[in-house]
Amino acid sequence: MGIDRDVRRAVFLDRDGVINRAVVRDGRPYPPASEAELDVLPGVPEALGRLRDAGFRLVVVTNQPDVARGTQRREVIDRMHRRLAAELPIDEFRVCDHDDGDRCGCRKPNPGMLEAAARDAGLSLADSFMVGDRWRDIEAGRRAGCAAVFIDRGYDERRPDRPDAIVGSLPEAVDWILNRSGSTC
Description:
- A 6-stranded parallel sheet has the order 5-4-1-6-7-8, sandwiched between helices. Strands 2-3 form a two-stranded antiparallel sheet.
- The chain has a single domain (10-181), classed as 3-Layer(aba) Sandwich (Rossmann fold), CATH 3.40.50.1000.
- 32% of the residues lie in helices and 18% in strands.
- By secondary structure, the protein is an alpha/beta fold.
- It is globular and about 45 Å long.
- α1 packs parallel to α6.
């Protein structure tokens, strides 16, 4: 199966636990509180480069409810994203800074961030992938119509229902995506 270069494809990526190390407390993942705590995981730059070389648009879609909760400032998140954009081949960052009680359509597991990114960039969701380390990521990908790849970090929380693949790292997810999409990079 060859690659149709006319199809605009993306890999949607959760941030914490996928691109950078999550802060794990009592078995649950949390975002880094500051730019100083932001630590890109091993193999991520190379893995993202392989996706870029295969023609995928790379879009980070991240829930950051600590903004709504008043324990994080949006400026700090924006600084982290500027740093990640300078270090990694990421095309776009989409952030939901609402909490569950806000009932917004962008907060994962809702697919709003993925759908908006696809609409704005003319992407085919059916030819795209979602990579995440929590059930909300996988559910958002499934609701958007993407193949969903779960990075199992062994958190002590709800597991996703029926991900298309379960892997241990972003480089493993990229291997699966490239194999599934017929890419050779």
